[in-house]
Recover the amino acids of this structure.
């Protein structure tokens, strides 16, 4: 790590410690639609941080710091509660059910109290568990971990769905699919970005969708930015689409 990166991380960590108390976090929601329709069925919650200096800090900058310092456990608990509350509000006010998909850090998944946190958030919001999905990423999750496995199993028993995020970027993608009860695969946007112009990427995405479908998984394509990509993905049999073409992350009120 470069010296200025280390200094920046320290600065962010110091400010992150106060961020929860000072109410500096908020959630944005990005729509996910069923391929070929325009109806929003799922929304992904994306964390936003505006610090005391009124600067917006991108998740890619502060989440790694929150993970390295362990602060992600408290922050993640806040996200779960806020997301379930919003999901419950939509359940009461909308005719079409919306599933809310929440990102969880591998550090949260490896914590023995994670499922209790999820259950507490569901209970506090009085939310049907089937309206919550937990997105887990392979990032940081290379080795088999007993607590993580038990947590993923328990989530499924609780009626919460589990999605594998950023699929294709990790190290052991395929073995995860049979090791854990996962219901949904989100194909990483780095593959989707190239399907129009690169036959190899197109073949790879087609193969990933084929594997997912044969394992009865729900397939979501991330980072769909053009109509051509959406059309190709529809032809390939991808179930759901997410990306700037469908909609950017917006506040709950704007969704
Ligand atoms: P992610 O889970 O892969 O989330 C999708 C990211 O891709 C979001 O960035 C979203 O704004 C962006 N995106 C969506 N559609 C498009 C598109 O069509 N094109 C492009 N170029 N980008 C698109 P964001 O909000 O900056 O989040 C970055 C990452 O931070 C997330 O990646 C996720 O790993 C992490 N993150 C966000 N919120 C949370 C959270 O509450 N908890 C944890 N642990 N991680 C979070
Ligand atoms: Ca995600
Ligand atoms: Ca992703």
């Amino acid at each position: 790590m470069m010296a200025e990166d280390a200094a920046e991380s320290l600065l962010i960590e110091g400010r992150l410690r106060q961020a929860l108390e000072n109410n500096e976090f908020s959630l944005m929601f990005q729509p996910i639609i069923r391929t070929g329709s325009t109806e929003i069925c799922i929304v992904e919650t994306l964390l936003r941080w505006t610090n005391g200096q009124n600067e917006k800090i991108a998740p890619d900058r502060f989440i790694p710091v929150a993970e390295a310092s362990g602060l992600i456990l408290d922050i993640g608990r806040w996200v779960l509660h806020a997301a379930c509350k919003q999901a419950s509000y939509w359940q009461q006010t909308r005719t079409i059910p919306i599933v809310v998909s929440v990102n969880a850090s591998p550090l949260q998944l490896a914590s023995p109290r994670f499922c209790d946190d999820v259950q507490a958030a569901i209970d506090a919001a009085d939310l049907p568990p089937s309206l919550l999905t937990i997105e887990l990423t392979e990032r940081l999750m290379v080795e088999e971990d007993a607590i993580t496995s038990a947590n993923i199993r328990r989530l499924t028993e609780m009626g919460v769905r589990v999605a594998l995020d950023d699929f294709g970027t990790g190290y052991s993608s395929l073995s995860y699919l049979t090791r854990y009860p996962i219901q949904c695969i989100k194909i990483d946007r780095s593959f989707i970005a190239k399907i129009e112009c690169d036959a190899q990427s197109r073949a790879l995405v087609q193969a990933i969708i084929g594997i997912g479908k044969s394992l009865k998984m729900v397939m979501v394509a991330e980072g769909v930015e053009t109509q051509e990509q959406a059309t190709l993905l529809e032809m390939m049999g991808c179930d759901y689409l997410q990306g700037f073409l469908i909609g950017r992350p917006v506040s709950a009120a704007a969704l």
Q: What stands out?
A: Residues 165-166, 186, 222 surround calcium ion (ligand 3) (CB under 6 Å). The first strand starts at residue 25 and ends at 34. The mean pLDDT is 93. The longest helix spans residues 72-93.
